[in-house]
Every structure is written in C-alpha cells, then in structure tokens.
Specification:
This protein has about 400 residues and is mainly beta. The chain contains 1 helix and 34 strands. The chain is about 0% helix and about 45% strand.
Length: about 400
C-alpha cells in the first residue's frame, strides 16, 4: 500500500513562491508561501510517520527533519526509525528498530555500492532518537540515548546520557561520538546538530546554567570545545540590562559561533524599555568575541485603546541559522500564521526580507530548519497527515 500522497509535477515546478500581500503598498516585503513537496500519512508502516498524540499528554519522542542534496531525512522518535525520502516522497532508505517496527517491504540492504539512492532497509536498535544531521558524503548523524552502562553522573553537568550515532551512506554503523570523539563520554542534553560546509560536526548542548559546544572534524576528532555560562557572556555596554543567551549557531566556513543574546531591562530601571537583541561572534581559535551585530527590532502592532493608539511590542527575532553565503537568517513572530524573515549581513546590513506564511495555528507539530543554501524547510504535522514543505528564501538574494 502506497501511503505517500505526492504533489503534482506542476506544483513542484511552480515558481509561484512570492506573492504580494493583499492590498500591500508598493515596495512592501514579499510574501513567502510554503511549497508542499510531499505528504506522509500518520502510522507505523515503513513510509509513515508516527506523530500520534494523546489528549493532555506530550508527544512521545522527538521527530526531526534535515535536508541534504534534495533528500529529506526524518528521524521519527516514537517509531525508532530514520527514513530517507526523495523530494518526490519516494522512500529510498530506512534505518529501523525491528522491536518497534513491522518488517519493511524494502530490500534488506542497498545493493548498489556507495549510495543510499537504492531502496533498502537496515536494522538498528535505537533507544531514544533526537536531533539528526547529514554530511555531503551522506554520513548520517543521529542523536540517541547512550547504553545504561555508559551513562555518567557528573557533579556539575548532571547526568550525561546522550551520544551521536554515525552511519555511513550504506547504513553501516560507525563508532558513536561522545565529548572527546569516537566512543567518548556521553553529552548532556543536545539542543542541535550542525554540519559545516567542510563536513565538520557541531554539537550544541544545554546545561542548567550554561551552554556547551563541541566541534569535530569530519573524521570525528575533537577540534574545539567551549562552555559559556553567564559569567562569560560578552560584557554589557549599557547599565540597566540583563543579558540572556537564547541560541547558538555555527558559521559554516570557519570555527566561529554566533551567540544570540536578548537584553532585558532591569525592573528597577524605569528609563529602560523593551527587549533588544544582538548577535555576538565568538572565534573558537582565539576565544575572543568579535564586534556585536545589532538586530533590527521586530515591528510591533498598533492597537487602539480608548482615544489613543498604542504599539504592542512583539518578541525579538530568533536566529534561524547561517547560510553558506555568510548571512544570518532571522525569524520573528508577526501575527497568527505570519512571520518576519530578515537576512542580515555580518556588517549588520539587511540583505533581504520577506513575510513567511506558516500555518502553525492548524498544526499539532512543526520542525523547521535552514539549509546552507538559504532554503527554509520543515515537517508540518496536522490532524491527518504530515507535510514536508519548503519556503524558497534562497531567491530573496538574487538581486543582491
């Protein structure tokens, strides 16, 4: 039974990604609408995704998506499997736990050496899937729980129980990564996995009062490690503000981290109003912060109160990621199903902007990311199916 609903070829070929907002004035930012590439049925079969949720209960396990060279990798935590799809929705490859999945109809293993494009399936006893990433050589990185015998109790970091599994392009397991490299000490909670343009893996971790980042070579050797707590944040230029580290993403070409900080006014300082946001580059070779990049203010909305009109502030921009072009991609909530996208150069100049339509008010689950080429993509789950979609934000820079 084929459980994948494919979009027509005309939809995939369509270039109607940008439309003008209804009634918009000349020069206003374009609207970026999702193209649904294909849909997955909800279920437990090999080409379905398990995203069932019981009322009042959290969703079982994490489900993450990543994209590389036109292929989509979906790590489905509830089903203990990783699926690889073409951009048309064909299931090409499957890594699955036989204890929680029915035997797939795919061949037991790929037959063509050196590629995952041959339909195939490989068994692996996954425990608790999390983040997923893939290199240009199709090395697959999958976060999982460490075996009980390898769990470490640390007096400062707490319980260390996360590892990064590695699989070659044919699904053969390689030595899993820990903090020191292959077979190293498990990580704390993993917030994100990133692969740079040079196929280096960056593992971003969260502790109760700090962040940790581990930067590995393509072979898995530890190149850089840093821990950032409140005492080691960039100094605050102005008084009356408290800094909060919100996100960390790596540069894709150099060992540099971009730290997104929100600055909140202290309650006692009546002169300071509003939350400001900055990105601070941290060079891991020198351990020095570079010049801060001031982020634009996410425009507020105007609301009439009595005889006056007040501006209601919106949350600051979040840092979606960096592109291979060296730009920062910022996403800020605007209204129901609508977000502001800003593409910012490292010099602080705006290089592109658009409104991004994400119908998240009707979704039960969403996982969105940025590709190195600047395409926003994601897995959008509704009540009956999950759509794999993208927003062609890469086209915003064509006139730059």
């Amino acid at each position: 039974m084929n459980t994948i609903h494919r979009c027509g070829a005309a939809v995939l070929a369509a270039a109607i990604t940008f439309t003008c907002l209804a009634g918009c004035a000349r020069g206003r930012a374009p609207e970026l609408v999702a193209d649904s590439l294909f849909s997955l049925e909800l279920g437990r079969l090999e080409d379905q995704v398990d995203l069932f949720q019981t009322a009042g209960s959290p969703m079982s396990g994490r489900t993450r998506i990543t994209m590389r060279d036109g292929l989509f990798y979906v790590a489905n935590g509830a089903a203990h499997k990783v699926m690889v799809f073409s951009s048309y929705g064909d299931l090409l490859f499957l890594l699955y736990d036989p204890a929680t999945n029915p035997k797939p109809t795919l061949a037991s293993a790929p037959t063509e050496p050196g590629t995952v494009s041959t339909r195939g399936a490989v068994e692996y006893p996954f425990q608790d899937l999390g983040e997923v990433a893939v290199s240009s050589e199709k090395v697959l990185y999958v976060e999982d729980a460490a075996p009980a015998a390898r769990v470490v109790k640390d007096p400062v970091a707490g319980t260390l129980r996360r590892i990064v599994l590695r699989f070659d392009r044919r699904g053969a397991p390689l030595a899993p990564l820990g903090q020191e490299g292959p077979n190293g000490t498990p990580f704390p909670y993993i917030a994100a996995l990133h692969v740079t343009d040079g196929d280096q893996l960056v593992v971003v971790c969260r502790l109760a009062a700090a962040w940790q980042v581990f930067w590995f070579s393509r072979e898995g050797a530890l190149l850089h490690q840093v821990e950032i707590d409140q005492a080691h944040l960039p100094p605050i230029d102005e008084s009356g503000f408290t800094a909060s580290l919100v996100n960390i993403v790596p540069d894709l070409a150099a060992p540099v981290l971009y730290l997104l900080l929100y600055y909140y006014p202290n309650a006692a300082d009546k002169a300071s109003t509003g939350v400001t946001a900055r990105v601070h580059p941290l060079d891991l070779r020198t351990r020095q912060y570079g010049k801060a990049i001031e982020l634009p203010v996410n425009p507020g909305r105007k609301e009439k109160v009595g005889f006056t009109t007040q501006e209601i502030a919106r949350p600051p921009y979040d840092l979606l990621g960096t592109g291979s072009n060296g730009h920062l991609y910022l996403l800020g909530y605007t209204d129901s199903n609508l977000y502001n996208l800003i593409i910012l150069g490292l010099d602080g100049r705006v290089r592109g902007r658009a409104y991004v339509v994400i119908e998240d008010s009707e979704l039960t689950y969403r996982d969105t990311h940025l590709s190195p080429s600047g395409i926003i993509y994601g897995l959008l789950c509704g009540q009956a199916k999950a759509d794999v979609s993208w927003w062609r934000s890469d086209r915003l820079l064509k006139a730059d």
